Amino acid sequence: MLLERFLEHLALEKRASSHTVAAYRADLGLFAEFIKQEGLGGIEQADGDLVRYWVMSRIETGDSPRTVNRRLSAVRGFFKFARQSGGATLDPTALIDAPKTPKRLPEFIEAGRMAALFEHGSEKDADFKEEDLLVVDLLYCTGMRLAEFIGLRASDFDESAGTLRLMGKRSKERIVPLPPNMVARLHARLAARMAAGRIAMHEPLVLNTAGRPFSRRAVQRLVSRYLGSVTPQSKRSPHVLRHTFATHMLDRGADLNAVKELLGHAGLAATQVYTHNTAEKLKNAHAQAHPRGGRRG
């Protein structure tokens, strides 16, 4: 079946994550069900009018423009594969306009709040575990993705160079620098594990208090809890720490291309979104402080 071949192509040739493949499967499943209801045998038989009708029906169902665009992207990907593999001759999505989505700035934590978090943790409060705080700090000081953290092995840490090797999307490798205090903390933990004879280079770089690898859910929970101690905002995920890293780097004058490389973005456009946060900050400062900046009172 062409759909299954496409999903295998994503997983094996494009090296898409299991989460990405599952999302494509769900979105294309909705499209396939719609096509079936229209009396066609398979989604490769859809034409432009049917795709447009499906997009409209998803909007009427209550999908947000962002969600519809994601679903439409899955359908576009399928037909690109179908044409390349000979399963279809035309692309019915070629003339379909994607719904416009409102611009949404990445959420981040203010620098002062992040500083307060680590100052609190350094006091060794009973509610703060050093191993957990290390995870938060590592995510924040590198801007790595959650999946990249989960994949970290002891062999990815180069103590002499003070760097980490990260495996990003589509197995794209990059090297990121670590601050000296993080190098020292990782060295101390690895040295303790080596002294106890409990380390191999293929093992996870960071372990929890029980000496076991962190799960994705465990990292999400601990990040939410620790960030919740310094901010009331509802979004408190590992990805917010990635946004925070990028925003703070640019606020302090980092080169945009350098931040792009550190984040592992394929193109500069994905990194430029963080400049909007910096621009908004400058606009607010101007409005509050300049005599003609717009401040009321």
What labels would you give this structure?
DNA polymerase, domain 1, hpI Integrase, Chain A, 12 helices
Structure description:
The chain is mainly alpha-helical and 297 residues long. The chain has 2 domains: 2-85, DNA polymerase, domain 1, CATH 1.10.150; 111-288, Intergrase catalytic core (hpI Integrase, Chain A), CATH 1.10.443. 57% of the residues lie in helices and 4% in strands. The chain is built from 12 helices and 3 strands. The chain has helices at 2-13, 18-37, 48-61, 65-85, 111-122, 130-142, 146-150, 180-195, 216-228, 238-251, 256-263, 268-289; strands at 157-158, 163-167, 173-177. It has a 3-stranded antiparallel beta sheet with strand order 1-2-3, with no helix packed on it. The longest helix is centred in the C-terminal third of the chain and has 22 residues, at 268-289. It is globular and about 65 Å long. The model has no long low-confidence stretch (mean pLDDT 87).
